[in-house]
Amino acid sequence: MANTFMVHRNSPAEECFRLGNAASDEFLDAIVLAGSALAETEREKQLIIWLTLQHTNICGMGNVGFEIAEMPWTKAGFDSEKAFILRCIEAAKTKLWWDRRRYPLIEELVIPWLESFGKLVDQMTVEYVNEDELNEWLSWFPEIGKEYILRDFPTCEKHKGMLVSLYGCRLCLEEKG
Ligand SMILES: [Zn+2]
Question: What domain of life does the UniProt record list for this protein's source (predicted)?
Answer without folding.
Answer: Bacteria
